[in-house]
Design a protein that fits this description.
550 residues, Rossmann fold, Helicase, Ruva Protein, domain 3, single chain, 5-stranded parallel sheet, Zinc Finger, Delta Prime, domain 3, alpha/beta
Length: 550
């Protein structure tokens, strides 16, 4: 006989064997006992909490001729017929049968009487996947169903169910399984499988399953497949591709101590040992959440955990900025083919946030381990000479001055035809997503857009402020990439969307006051000068007339 997965083998077959849904089970049993059967039910809750299992149990119990305290007896004529052939209990996966035609087929068949049972029961799983047309087709049937038909709709995303459907169903909320019940259930299964699993291992499985019984049993199934007798917690972490909390804390400590070498070595080890970097980001977010709570709420964690989380010297501002970065990293990972490189870039950025305490007061780009080096050269446009730029030298040009110069110069030389040319081929950046050299900057640029362009300058705008500093730390690499992409040398700068509104408004006001923008040397910022003539109109730069945005 072929192997049966444990979650199928130990799936509950009556109401009494369902764990974690006491109130829901009691109501359903009483409705059967008192013969108060509704025509439509909606089961909502996280995955693996028993929605489909309870639907099947209910479908059998409601057809039983001699139910025992709400449960199917298993001995009556109908119970035996349903066990042999459950033709009147129809399961439909809405994820793969979500069109109007499938629902119309159901509507045509509901009029037919059950073959053997009292009720014909339709169990529609993942019902939120139905199209709008399919929901509309289902609505009429739910409104006036035949007396011999029961619908049970199951979903993990209640917010996607139209209110017109919700109002026609009895709604039951399935909760995550609590830890004690889950522990007892896993302990019982391991004994039935003749395996002795330690309480620590089972507790870890319960913790990692996050209230999902099916996930917990599946993980236990993997653990029982190990040939060793003394299974330990490390093997559970290895199976899941995640890190113990102690290792996550050590990794986060490298940021706290600005120990970039150790942190980058950690990332290398994560990749070499097959860890899931996306899950590690999730673990870091959970740890930051715990640190934030421990620093602001007393007696929420145990004394030992409180001391452990308070050992980090992060300010609340640090935690906020690191959380933003990790969320952005998570989003970028979904698009990147080289998650390791992306993780490393964001790691350096996160170290910098901790060292500088606040992301908003960042004036100069530190060049330790970053791609902007002290040997970066900026061409003097007035004399074709070059000048070495040191961002740590107060007498040298800093990033704020460079930003002002380049914004000034792109506005002074802007050309809407150049902007059209750039944007018409901007999607070519997608071709470099899998490029080992440029995949990181390509991914970054896809989150922004060119808002002003000239033959020498490009100004980018980003909605997410966290990407601005990532852009600034990679100016040279971005410029090399754009030369590869457009076969032209551009100097680049970026702003966030709020900055851009201010710049645009200032430009429009300057136009009204006959102030023009004059190209400035990057080696000596001389600022804007008032001149009686205005050389560029808003149409020249933006391609259309613009109103001031308040």
């Amino acid at each position: 006989m072929s192997y049966v997965a444990l979650y199928r083998k130990y799936r509950p077959d009556n109401f009494d064997s369902v764990i974690g849904q006491k109130v829901t089970i009691e109501i359903l049993k009483n409705s059967i006992i008192n013969n108060k059967i509704s025509h439509a039910y909606l089961f909502n809750g996280p995955r693996g909490t028993g929605k489909t299992s309870v639907a099947k149990i209910f479908a059998k119990a409601v057809n039983c001729l001699d139910n025992k305290n709400g449960n199917a007896c298993g001995m009556c004529e109908l119970c035996k017929k349903i066990q042999k052939n459950d033709i009147d209990i129809i399961e439909i996966d809405a994820a793969s049968n979500n069109g109007v035609e499938e629902i119309r087929e159901i509507r045509s068949k509901v009029k037919l009487l059950p073959s053997v049972a009292k009720y014909k029961v339709y169990i529609i799983d993942e019902v939120h996947m139905l199209s709008t047309g399919a929901f509309n087709a289902l609505l009429k049937t739910l409104e006036e169903p035949p007396s011999h038909v029961i619908f049970i709709l199951c979903t993990t995303e209640i917010q996607k169910i139209p209110l017109t459907i919700l109002s026609r169903c009895q709604h039951f909320e399935f909760k995550k399984i609590n830890s004690e019940e889950m522990f007892d259930s896993l302990k019982k299964i391991s004994k039935l499988e003749n395996r002795n699993i330690s309480d620590n291992v089972i507790s870890l499985i319960v913790k990692l399953s996050d209230g999902g019984c099916r996930d917990a049993i599946n993980l236990l199934d993997q653990v029982l497949s190990l040939s060793v007798d003394n299974i330990n917690e490390k093997e559970i972490y290895d199976i899941q591709g995640i890190l113990p909390e102690e290792d996550i804390m050590e990794f986060l400590n490298t940021m706290s101590n600005n120990d970039m070498i150790s942190g980058l070595n950690y990332i290398n080890s994560f990749v070499e040992t097959g860890k899931n970097l996306s899950i590690i980001v999730d673990q870091l977010l959970v740890l930051l959440r715990n640190i934030s709570i421990s620093k602001n709420v007393n007696n929420y964690f145990s004394k030992d955990d409180q001391e452990k989380y308070n050992s980090f010297n992060f300010t609340l501002e640090n935690v906020k900025e690191l959380t933003k970065l990790l969320i952005e990293l998570k989003n970028q990972m979904n698009k990147s083919v080289n998650q390791k490189n992306l993780f490393e870039i964001f790691y350096i950025y996160m170290c910098d946030v901790v060292v500088n305490k606040s992301n908003d007061n960042y004036d100069k780009i530190k060049n330790d381990n970053l791609e902007v080096s002290n040997d970066k050269k900026i061409k003097d446009e007035s004399s074709d000479k070059t000048k070495k730029v040191d961002y740590n030298d107060e007498n040298s040009i800093n990033i704020d001055s460079l930003k002002k110069i380049r914004i000034n110069n792109v506005l002074a030389t802007a050309n809407k035809e150049e902007l059209k040319k750039i944007n018409s081929s901007y999607e070519r950046i997608n071709d470099f997503i899998s490029n080992k050299v440029y995949n990181n900057v390509a991914t970054l640029l896809l989150d922004g857009k060119v808002i002003v362009a000239s033959s020498q300058y490009l100004l980018f705008v980003f909605e997410d402020k966290s990407l601005i500093r990532l852009f600034l730390t990679n100016l040279e690499k971005i410029e090399k990439f754009l030369k590869e992409l457009y076969n032209n040398e551009y100097k680049v700068m970026c702003v966030d969307s709020n900055e851009w509104i201010k710049i645009k408004n200032e430009f429009i006001l300057n136009k009204k006051n006959n102030i023009i923008y004059k190209v400035c040397s990057e080696s000596e910022f001389i600022g804007n000068k008032k001149i009686s003539k205005f050389e560029h109109t808003t149409s020249d730069i933006f391609g259309e007339d613009i109103e001031i945005v308040n």
